[in-house]
Amino acid sequence: MNGTERYLEEQYASLGISKEVYRFGEKIEHELKERFEEMNKRAEYNQMKVIKAMQENRVSAECFQTSSGYGYNDLGRDTLEKVYASCFKGEDALVRPQITCGTHALALALMSNLRPGDELLSPVGKPYDTLEEVIGIRPSKGSLAEYGISYRQADLLADGSFDYDAIRAAINEKTRLVTIQRSKGYAVRPTLSVKKIGELISFIKDIKPDVVCMVDNCYGEFVEEKEPLETGADLIVGSLIKNPGGGLAPIGGYLVGKKEYIENAAYRLTSPGLGKEVGASLGVIQSFYQGLFLAPTVVCGALKGAVFAANIYERLGFDVLPDGTESRHDIIQAVTFRNPDAMTAFCEGIQAAAPVDSYVTPEPWAMPGYDSDVIMAAGAFVQGSSIELSADGPMKPPYSVYFQGGLTWYHAKLGILMSLQKLKERNLVNTNLL
Ligand SMILES: *Cc1c(COP(=O)(O)O)cnc(C)c1O
């Protein structure tokens, strides 16, 4: 061990990571060297993509000026939308602090591009929880169902593949928009690669060419070289407090895609007749630029954390999804503990490693919309930001925790080592395996 390595081990010890846990982590990290190299290359590719988009659209210091009131002629806002369109390969974009979260961005895309009598189809099973109320699967005020927009769903097959027969049967003369969720979210199904999404879209367009194919891109941005607009999607939608905000955007959502669908969304977000012309940027626009600039590196760090966690916990005998060797299409990692105490210890470790609120202890709590208590760990600079290191899960069998984010790889690493430290201190792992 050289001087630097010894200093490092001592620094981890001063944070509460034992030698045994630290060295186990080093061993796993060493084994992942090639995998991490590949991720670095992908981040480098995406970094160049972002810089190119900024250069092509002549981003200048003037773009960082703020606007208030109506926000007419906001150069920074309008240029940023061009940057997003270039970066994600769309005709146009809507990137706004007035879009409050991912659910809002998705609701906006759906409500502005569907009309009474139209039908929405999800060919990849049940969508993300919060969309159930948007669609009206669970009755809710203002849902699509209330406006006479119907919904159909084709579930994935048991092995996670598309049920092409069911999808063909579900498409009819009313089908106007197809929503495809890239990330598994909190479901147990594989995350879809951009290539797979492309295959699905070409199948659907062969049956009905004029259907709008929308992708819920949450947690997927910059994980691969390509994004779904490059494999046939018409519209992609996501949150700025996830991947593309790079941890710096304090709020916001985006839509990128065909001009017509972006226009529809703009007239819905503000007002018919006003569209993209209004919407002050209120001083946050620089963080949107800078966050996008950092996003490829941040996503890379989060991905390394996910792969590191998968390999650590797989080695210790827990079920992990995706497994330690699978290719990645989003930043979410699930670990199944089959033991409430282990799940709690894991979350306590993530919390204890945070730069903010490290001294608080997460406790399972009742949450609206859940039928069991939920435990959450997060010590974030931006409230609820899940590109920052965070973990949560429902306190019920099989006691699976969903873990994501990390603004830097080093922080993600500390979080995972701290989670293991907590499990070890409570005799919840087989230490012979360390
Ligand atoms: C996070 C997420 C959403 C909703 O975003 P919020 O910002 O939490 O409203 C929708 N779909 C997927 C796949 C997500 O991961």
Give the SSE layout.
Layout: H1 3-14, H2 19-31, H3 33-56, H4 75-88, E1 92-96, H5 102-113, E2 119-122, H6 131-135, E3 150-153, H7 164-170, E4 175-181, H8 194-207, E5 212-216, E6 235-239, E7 253-257, H9 259-269, H10 285-315, E8 319-321, E9 333-336, H11 340-352, E10 374-378, E11 390-394, E12 400-404, H12 409-425
Parallel strand pairs: 2-3, 2-4, 4-5, 5-6
Antiparallel strand pairs: 1-7, 6-7, 8-9, 9-12, 10-11, 11-12
Helix pairs in contact: 3-4, 3-10, 5-9, 10-12, 11-12
Pyridoxal-5'-phosphate binds next to helix 5.
Helix content: 25-40%
Q: How would you spell out the order of helices and strands?
A: HHHHEHEHEHEHEEEHHEEHEEEH
CATH architecture of the largest domain: 3-Layer(aba) Sandwich
| Overall pLDDT | 96
Biggest sheet features: 7 strands, mixed
Number of helices: 12
Uncertain spans = none
Cα distance, first to last residue?
A: 19 Å
Strand content: 5-15%
Going by CATH, what is the homologous superfamily of the largest domain?
A: Type I PLP-dependent aspartate aminotransferase-like (Major domain)
* Domain count: 2
The shape, in one word, is globular
Record the strand order, biggest sheet.
1-7-6-5-4-2-3
Instruction: Report the structural category.
Output: alpha/beta
CATH class of the largest domain: Alpha Beta
Describe the structure.
By secondary structure, the protein is of the alpha/beta class. The protein is built from 12 helices and 12 strands. It has helices at residues 3-14, 19-31, 33-56, 75-88, 102-113, 131-135, 164-170, 194-207, 259-269, 285-315, 340-352, 409-425, and strands at 92-96, 119-122, 150-153, 175-181, 212-216, 235-239, 253-257, 319-321, 333-336, 374-378, 390-394, 400-404. A hairpin with a 5-residue loop joins strand 11 (390-394) and strand 12. Residues 101-103, 106, 128, 130, 181, 183, 185, 216, 218-219, 239 line the site of pyridoxal-5'-phosphate.
